[in-house]
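In response to a reviewer's request, we include the raw inputs and outputs for one of the modeled complexes. The two entities were modeled together in a single run.
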Amino acid sequence: MPQIVPILDPADPRIADYRDIRERDLVGRRGLFVAEGRVVLNVLVTSPRCTPVSLLVAEHRLPTLDDILDRLGDAVPVYAAAQPVLDAIAGFPLHRGLLALGRRTDTPEADALLAGLPADDDVLLLSAIANHDNMGGLFRNAAAFGVGAVLLDADCCDPLYRKAIRVSVGAALRVPYAVLPRDIDALALLERHGFAPLALSPAGAQELADLAPPPRAAVILGAEGPGLSPALLARTTSVRIDMEAGFDSLNVATTGGIVLHHLAAARRARNAIAHPAL
Amino acid sequence: MPQIVPILDPADPRIADYRDIRERDLVGRRGLFVAEGRVVLNVLVTSPRCTPVSLLVAEHRLPTLDDILDRLGDAVPVYAAAQPVLDAIAGFPLHRGLLALGRRTDTPEADALLAGLPADDDVLLLSAIANHDNMGGLFRNAAAFGVGAVLLDADCCDPLYRKAIRVSVGAALRVPYAVLPRDIDALALLERHGFAPLALSPAGAQELADLAPPPRAAVILGAEGPGLSPALLARTTSVRIDMEAGFDSLNVATTGGIVLHHLAAARRARNAIAHPAL
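The model returned the following structure tokens for the whole complex.
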């Protein structure tokens, strides 16, 4: 069991990394990230891709945390503070009463990551996704539909920012990902590993519903508004989602969910034909 | 052309309804709503379901607003303020520099709304959606896939809150909707108008991909977490979306997008078989 360390003073240096988390959300923490709430903490203590560094909890919540505390090593301190002290540390009313610092331990290179995936896994390639809500939503959908890995180009925001982790419901701590160097030819990388590139665009050549899933796909999504570059679209199968005339506007995370559901459902249907139940 | 009214003092009573919009977001404004940004303002001035009451803009943006101003009646005042005055009025840095007050003019009863829809329109029925991001996302998806109307039960939040409108990219001002009285039997109402109820649930009896779309569907979505009541599910076709074991968690707006895309695509495929191109 971990040690419970009472914190009486918001200025205690032992909880410095938790201080004013809203303001510091964008400045980074030497490779650490902040996780909030029970669902996300549960992923943090179970995922093989990250490790908890410490917890900071409202002392009245301690009795409800046995399942999480049981999974912590003895060396992980659990700081416990009264709610007003906790609020003063965080810089806002922290109703959930549960914070943790974590460190990502699984930081693969893209090449090694793709090489290690099962033969039928799909991947997501995200380009210039700068909004943390969208990043979190995309990871959530990637986890829900069993995507093998997420590749982020150099213009994406960090999926381990507090808000992205929260919106992902912990998926950002669970789905393997790699950040691509700026000068890499991402399509050549995908091709080397046998991923068929499906690039989403409102002007895509093929409607999603008509798309027969390739053996393994790389679903490529760009930022809402600018979208993907014409140079990239020209080298891929460009895919569109037909929408109502006059309102052709889908959120990028929703788009990802629709595409991943289509691929999963179409593969299931194909497998059912190839291997009918006896 | 509307009159341009310079505003020099953040305390000017003429712009009282714009003051501290963040704090007042949840208190209502006597039937008025706040719209932000060019895309949403464009819907506000073109949608037949609402009308602009006034605009408040950063004076340096005035020269870029001809397309919007041209659509305003002479009686709609356009208040123009220097950026610092605008920020002081709004209560935070208003980078977009574009606000409007609007009033919804189309407030149908659910019965009349459903009676007036085209024979092949689907509808959404939302139950206890209390999160404004999700509400906005659901309206955005409803507009993108041409849903005829949205019905809200008495436990839903208001789609005309500032943030819901913004997240909807204006769809909340465009898609017809009605709020149901608390004691109404919503399923009986839908049945009277010939809508087949499809209730989404992680434990749904039928997988979405196998669902043949009914002539007109009512897609029913509940809040993440509690979901729809067993009593309601027992009276409907319950539909699930298969997900990865250990992470069966989709955002409710994303779920709506996936379902609406499936219905639209399956209908298109059926129509292509019934009426093949010559």
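As requested, we also summarize the result in words. The radius of gyration of chain B is 21 Å. DSSP finds nine helices and twelve strands in chain B.
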